[in-house]
From TrEMBL:
Top-level lineage group: Bacteria
Family (UniProt): Belongs to the guanylate kinase family.
Catalytic activity: GMP + ATP = GDP + ADP
Annotated protein name in UniProt: Guanylate kinase
SMART domains per UniProt: GuKc (SM00072)
Native source species: Priestia veravalensis
The keyword Cytoplasm appears for this protein: yes
Role description: Essential for recycling GMP and indirectly, cGMP.
GO molecular function: ATP binding; GMP kinase activity
Length: 204
């Protein structure tokens, strides 16, 4: 019997560095997590590639995915839809591999309902002023959108207690190291090795 993989959800306010931390994490050679690519109705930013960064969809196509129950969770976030295709998550977990989602807070809470056994990590900024300057410096949002994202961010930070772990993103490499340590500890805590030994002893 294959042990199911672990579902890992990284969430937190926009601009905290989720995308940056996730990319740095997946650049590490020893990483064994599978990244779930989301669907979105947001227009691609410069340099973003369909099927790599997101599956870019029209609103109608996205609404079809919702109706046909193709999404594990979805949320409307600052005017656009974002969602996690369910088949990839189910198939990958069933094959024994860990799946990594990088999603906003409403979606993360939906995943928690569907997968309470998942590992939920909240990425927190060192301060609200640092969060704002990260969003401003990224230069992808207009003034209105920045204010919108800061308003949403404050609501999201209030929900951090629903998570298993809060990781501060002071430096990208520190945040990555903390996430890796949490995932490793979680594997040990969930007794995967002892389950394997129990099965070996049963065969003896
Ligand atoms: N609920 C949900 N949120 C997502 C998904 N994919 C991305 N997001 C989140 O949507 C928000 C906006 O993403 P994006 O427009 O790429 O901006 P950025 O992450 O701030 O650069 C971020 O908080 C993402 O983590 C998804 O599949 N579901
Ligand atoms: N630890 C960090 N220290 C300083 N700047 C950071 C850090 N992590 C991310 N950033 C910067 O903050 C901005 C927002 O990061 P991004 O990954 O797009 O956030 P999110 O995906 O959470 O919206 C980017 O310009 C990124 O380079």
């Amino acid at each position: 019997m294959i042990e199911r993989g672990l579902l890992i959800v990284l969430s937190g306010p926009s601009g905290v560095g989720k995308g940056t931390v996730r990319k740095a994490l997946f650049e590490q050679e020893d990483i064994k997590l599978q990244y779930s690519i989301s669907a979105t109705t947001r227009r691609p930013r410069e340099g973003e590639v369909d099927g790599v960064d997101y599956f870019f969809k029209e609103r109608e196509e996205f609404e079809h995915m919702i109706e046909n129950k193709k999404l594990l969770e979805w949320a409307e976030y600052v005017g656009n839809y974002y969602g996690t295709p369910i088949d990839y998550v189910e198939e990958t977990l069933a094959s024994g591999k860990d799946v990594f989602l990088e999603i906003e807070v409403q979606g993360a809470l939906q995943v928690k309902e569907a997968f309470p056994e998942g590992l939920f990590i909240f990425l927190a900024p060192p301060s609200l002023s640092e969060l704002k300057s990260r969003i401003v410096n990224r230069g992808t949002e207009t003034e209105d959108l920045i204010n919108n994202r800061m308003r949403v961010a404050k609501e999201e930070i209030e929900l951090m207690d629903a998570y298993d772990y809060v990781v501060e993103n002071d430096k990208v490499e520190n945040a990555c190291a903390r996430i890796q340590a949490i995932v490793t500890a979680e594997h040990c805590r969930r007794d995967r090795v002892s389950a394997r030994y129990k099965r070996m002893l049963e065969v003896e």
